[in-house]
Amino acid sequence: MAGILDLLNSDLGKTIISGVSGSTGTDQGKTSSVLTMALPVLMKAMERNASTPEGAQGLMGALSGKHNGSILDNLGGLFGGGVDEEVTNDGSKILNHVLGSKQQGVEQVIGQKAGLDSGAVANILKVAAPILMGVLGKQASQNNVSDQNGITGLLGGLLGGNDTANEQSFLEKILDADGDGSVIDDVAGMVLGGSKSSGGLGGLLGGLFGK
Known about the structure:
This protein is mostly helical. The protein contains twelve helices and no strands.
């Protein structure tokens, strides 16, 4: 299975990046950087949420209902007339549900890395989250996912397409932060400080995220 970052490099990914960029008024290169960092973090968080039966059931319900992938069938329409409020409200709810108290910290860290303020990152993620759910919904239906093992396998597979131990630990560190703002010091120091204290992690992420 192709990984989520492979998706961003595909034609569909390019359409999503240019559409999100246009609809949020954000530079396309920076939008691409934000999505490259944020989508694996969101999926890692979903994978955690789906590790409980209730979480898996909730996610599967969303993917078989509202987020069944139909949003991908009309991206031209979605972006062409400007993304409507219903989509961004939906995006806000998804982010809140998936990231909870970590949301602000994640947006700040990604913003620092991409050279954007956290508000701009939040706007990008609000548009991107329903599209990501649509991608997952389409994959779930194509792979006949119907139980907790299936959904965690699907998420793990999409993450695994671009997995390295270091990247995984980066995602864990962002998500394990306690949400009090110190995540910025911990993770941003680790990521932005180059490879001095991070065993090459800064350099690795630089390579992964095209920075």
